[in-house]
């Protein structure tokens, strides 16, 4: 670079620094995405056989087969529990942002589940919710409350709430930490001025806190929606071979089973495209309805 000017050297260095991440992005994000779109129009079985072009047949099958889209009810349960998760995270953030003795201990305790592996969490809760030997049912039997015992991981009416609770336990601390960071960015002088004007805590929270952390709250709602639609990890952790009769299947686990269990990568690719489009549409709708398009 001796013959180059300072401006040219600067541009060359920036280009070289950007080259590697851009190539990685193209290789591991955009190229697979383009291939996924192409495979969704084929009947590829995942092997070396020729990929037969079948047009929109995979997409037609998705919306004609009730077993594919009925799993969205399970995803909806994750969404509802996720809203509770956001509310709890915001509550703890507000409490721990105040002057509280030992608040760092509580912050670490609530954040700790986030760094634990999801499979380990699944095994831990499996022992807790096991029908015969789980801690909850054993406690209920020893307390003489046999009628209150539940087959937590085998009852279709209950199992998805249990799995969604696992997700809440793991990710609530992460959301709480993000909220705390947002709360600490609000100037304290604003709260002092509100206190002088006679505003109570509810009025202060409604008029100062929520508007100040609106963007962060929007991000948390996006993460909740995206996590609910793409939920699969705890269902896979509890039922690595697939849940009985698909009682805990989500759209992602259904997609994975379609690809790797039934060797229908073409249909699975179409399901992946549908999931991506659905996520984009729901995020835009959520932003428009809840946040008035971000105005």
From TrEMBL:
Keyword line: Cell membrane, Membrane, Transmembrane, Transmembrane helix, Transport
Transmembrane region(s): 12-31, 76-96, 108-129, 158-183, 222-242, 262-285
Matching SUPFAM superfamilies: MetI-like
InterPro entries for this protein: MetI-like (IPR000515), MetI-like_sf (IPR035906), UgpAE/MalFG_permease (IPR050809)
Gene3D superfamilies: MetI-like
Family indicated by similarity: Belongs to the binding-protein-dependent transport system permease family.
Name recorded for this polypeptide: Carbohydrate ABC transporter permease
Record organism: Cohnella soli
Phylogenetic placement of the source organism: Bacteria, Bacillati, Bacillota, Bacilli, Bacillales
């Amino acid at each position: 670079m001796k013959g180059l000017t300072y401006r040219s050297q600067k541009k060359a260095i920036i280009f070289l620094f950007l080259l590697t991440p851009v190539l990685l992005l193209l290789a591991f994000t955009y190229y697979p995405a383009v291939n996924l779109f192409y495979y969704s129009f084929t009947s590829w079985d995942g092997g070396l056989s020729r990929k037969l072009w079948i047009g929109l047949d995979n997409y037609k099958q998705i919306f004609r087969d009730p077993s594919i889209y009925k799993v969205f009810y399970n995803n909806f349960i994750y969404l509802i529990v996720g809203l509770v998760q956001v509310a709890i995270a915001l509550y703890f953030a507000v409490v721990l942002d105040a002057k509280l003795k030992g608040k760092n201990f509580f912050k670490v305790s609530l954040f700790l589940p986030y760094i634990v592996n999801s499979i380990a969490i699944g095994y831990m809760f499996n022992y807790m919710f096991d029908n015969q030997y789980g801690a909850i049912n054993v406690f209920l039997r020893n307390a003489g409350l046999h009628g209150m015992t539940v087959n937590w991981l085998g009852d279709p009416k209950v199992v998805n709430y249990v799995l969604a609770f696992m997700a809440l336990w793991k990710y609530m601390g992460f959301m709480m930490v993000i909220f705390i960071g947002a709360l600490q960015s609000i100037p304290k002088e604003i709260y002092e001025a509100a206190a002088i004007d006679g505003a109570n805590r509810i009025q202060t929270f409604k008029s100062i806190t929520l508007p100040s952390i609106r963007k962060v709250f929007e991000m948390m709602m996006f993460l909740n929606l995206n996590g609910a639609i793409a939920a699969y990890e705890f269902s896979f952790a509890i039922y690595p071979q697939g849940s009985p009769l698909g009682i805990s299947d989500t759209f992602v686990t259904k997609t994975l089973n379609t690809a790797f269990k039934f060797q229908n990568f073409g249909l699975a690719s179409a399901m992946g495209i549908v999931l991506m489009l659905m996520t984009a549409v729901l995020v835009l709708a959520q932003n428009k309805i809840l946040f008035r398009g971000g105005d």
